[in-house]
Amino acid sequence: MNTTEFLTLSSVIVPDRHALIFEGKRFAYGELQERVNRLADALAKDGVGPGDRIAAIQVNCNEHIEAYFAAAKLDAIYVPINFRVKNDELSFMLKDSGPKVLLAGGRYYDLVESVTKGVNSLQTLVGLDGPRESWVDYNVLLARGENEERFPQGDDDDTTIIMFTAGTTGTPKGVMLTYNSFSSYILANVAPADPEVEERNILTVPLHHIAGMQAVMSAIYGGRTVIIQRQFQPVEWMELVQREKANRAMMVPTMLKQLIDHPDFNKYDLSSLQVITYGAAPMPVPVIREAIKKMPNTKFINAFGQTETASTITMLPPEDHDLSGTPAEVEKKLKRLSSIGKPLSDVMVRIVDEEGNYVPMGEVGEIVASGPRLMKGYWNREDATKETMRNGWLYTGDLGYSDEDGYIYLAGRAKDFIKRGGEMISPDEVEQVLMSHPAVDEAAVIGIPDEFWGERVRAVVVVRPGWGVSEEELINHCHERLASYKRPESVVFTGELPRNPMGKVLKRVLREDYPEPIVG
Fold it and tell me: Which member of 145, 312, 334, 381 lies 3.0 to 4.6 Å from 305 by CB, making a disulfide possible if both were Cys?
């Protein structure tokens, strides 16, 4: 099923219901459909067609959602970009994806202009926050278009989104997600729009993240009202939930912890919240226990997945968050709170050894998945695709084991990726930046468990003989060249890095040698 049909169906079934609420603006489903049609027509007049890429860099806003559906109506490909990227990262993503059109928020105008001269594919820059010389104003572009219904001609297996994620080679990889990547999950797990059922989702997870995009598409198909928050701020979030009577929310663990720890938590009426889904990073058991205690009328769902799986592949449902029962039952439920639940019905999940064979219950192996909604592959990365997708199975890079009841527990990551606050960080990328400093001879980056962030970044550095450099200097060096969440928050200096006979750095040893929590 083409994702444009999600909006088309809801605009017919509930045309007058609010589809989007954003900072004083309210768009009904019928109005949203018209805006998407006009934008698609205007882009088509500017030469955008099947297979062309439309990129966007901006915090959450209604224009993000309109641009995605307009791209889909044209059989074009949407490329949402992390709004925290630095110059080199943005330059790489744009050159790699080759967009014809780039939409950007006002705070990113200068950044975009600093890198786009080398992006030969770019024909149009669209400003989302007012005019700019040589740019097209978004509202002017919208006014050019006609309210003409367009019907995509592509297949369900065509790419609809390229979403960049961290790469093991030190540069981001573009994950190609198809229409079916989204529709197979949504049709199996979300009820369609119903005039008699009205729900409101608060959108906090960024739209450059798979969880944010999946939440929007699920809400549009379900005819729900999406309450958009630009970026997460706990007080503003609670105010929005209270004022708009939000029923559903998707959060990463750090967001939930900020809420329940906030001194004003009890001042807000959050009783409208029926469901909170959390994921994108490990959830510390003390945090979810406290959330269950403080929000007894809210059901919690742990959704585990990754960009390459188009979001959720396993789920810990609300009943496993109910900590009532006998002492034995409560003890079992507490153990399950540390799991990622069981596979969803529309995907197969296995735990295998290095040869791809099943491992016995309780034994650690790599989590692999198979099903219709996995990624198509990595954009321009044939070798990386072959490495990740083998014989119809996607190798997630996450290690885990299962218990006697089929619940899956994470045990680490095969590729040493770091998950900080729901964002994936490639150690290789940070190491390359560290080693670009003239005083650094060698560097290795590891993740340190943290109750608030899930993990934080620590660098272990060998300094060149005769040179001197401080921890602060190296952190600033990385901060100037990487998104803020990727920079090390701790630097440890050592004489040499532990390596195996083949010369590979033993990060397991580093995590054992430098396990101290990062404070501050």
Answer: 312
